[in-house]
Amino acid sequence: MAFLDFVAWVRDEDTTPTDIRAVNVVARLLTELRHRDIVPDLPDTTFLLYGENTVPITRKPKPFPADILQAIDALIADQSALPRIERLILRLCRAVGPRSSEALTLARDSVTYVDGRGYTLEYFQSKIQDWRRVPLPPNLGRDLVAQSQWVADTYSPNCPWMFPYAGKSPRSNPIINPDAVTPWPYARFNPFLWKVYQRHGIVHSSLTGETLTGPQLHRFRHSIATGLLNEGWSQYEVQTFLGHKSPTMMQAYAEINDDTLRDKYLEFINRSVDFHGRAVEPMSTDNLNVERLRDRFIRSTLPNGFCALPEKQKCEYLPSPCLSCSFFRTTPTFLPIHIRQRDDAVRELDLARADGRQRAADVHEKTIDQLNKIIDGLSQAPRVEGTHVDN
Per residue in 56-73, is it b (16+ CB within 10 Å) or e — as a string? Predict the structure, then answer.
């Protein structure tokens, strides 16, 4: 039977990605057998061409829940919680998100320092067969340089690894590692770190209900990517920072970021009132365009609310108080400020009337009327649980 017939037989409706990968492994084995003249007479029908048995890939980035990430940060900050080298590896993963295997096999000379530019990490990414160059936080950079010197003093200046493994039974390949030194193996570092997590209660998220099944170091990359997007980095900038070759993963990160922005905006808009004190009509989720929101949603924070004027439009109300501006938005968070403003306006109104300054009195009356509308509207707006406004 031709190999393609075998592939067609495997790829039925019950086929899993594991089955497809197994076929590709067999195809690679057959190719090697003929290429190395072990079985030179294998016919062409036993081979696959590129693209003939593709494995569908679904990108599902999964950043750490916020409380898990906070607990890991606390663990890193506690110098007594981890041995120095293992803590340094975790700090590296948390700061710049290298893949686990790349962090553990980091070359000893991978960190450089340049005056005026600081520390830089450069290493080869085996997954995509390309180099990654990324800036390091100053403290982490200094500690990695110190670690490199420690390795040279402790093992040998010829030791190639930033993090040599010196466990109970370090395995050594005398050809690859003539100095009998190996890097930290993932199969040992992963369970070691997981035991540390368990000992410190980093196993369950109270925010999402998720239970961790291991340290999942790769999720630091996902957390860093979504965090940078939330900070306003472009997809291309994040792609470059993480060393991705294609934008595919960035698009998956961006979907998470857009969902976060959508939720934040809907939470804001559902609790907002305008300068008339009327609740702002929520935007349809189906029509919500996040890029448009970034342009529309609030470039200016006011002492008592926000300005929703699109960034590129000219403000016609700039000489006037924001209380008369149709782009003004506010929430119950600012209710005490509005009440204080109204009380101040009432006092100014009394003084203006007492002095016979009618025009000033008219202005204060209008201000008080506007503030009353806003206060009444905010008093009826839904509040976030746990907040309290004292009138």
Answer: eeeeebebbbeebbebbe
Co-location of 292 and 156 in the same domain: no
Give domain status of residue 389, yes or no. no
User: Is residue 121 in some structural domain?
Assistant: yes
| Domain of 23, in residue numbers | 3-46
- Phi/psi zone of residue 118: left (φ > 0), alpha (ψ -120 to 50 degrees), beta? left
User: Which strands sit side by side in the sheet containing 305-307, from one edge to the other?
Assistant: 300-302, 305-307, 328-329
Taking CB atoms within 8 Å and a gap of at least 24, the contacts of 161-165 are 161/105, 161/106, 161/107, 161/108, 162/106, 162/107, 162/108, 162/110, 162/111, 163/85, 163/88, 163/89, 163/103, 163/104, 163/106
Same domain, 36 and 146: no
Q: What is the pLDDT of residues 3-31, one digit of tens each?
A: 556 666 666 656 676 776 777 777 777 77
Read off φ and ψ for residue 380, nearest 5 degrees.
Answer: -95, -10
If one counts the domains in the chain, the total is: 3
Looking at the fold, whether 238 and 355 belong to one and the same domain comes out as no
Burial class (CB in 10 A: 0-12, 13-18, 19+), 223: buried
Give the chain's residues under pLDDT 50: 1, 170, 172-176, 256-257, 261-262, 265-266, 268-269, 283, 285-301, 317-320, 384-391
The pLDDT tens digits for 43-59 are 665 555 555 555 555 55
- Co-location of 316 and 228 in the same domain: no
| pTM beyond 0.70, yes or no | no
Q: Indicate if 182 and 297 belong to the same structural domain.
A: no
Q: Does residue 163 fall inside a structural domain? A: yes
Residue 147 pLDDT: 97
Both 95 and 203 in one domain: the answer is yes
Angstrom distance (rounded) from CA 313 to CA 305: 19
Q: What are the φ and ψ backbone dihedral angles of 329, each rounded to 5 degrees? A: -135, 145
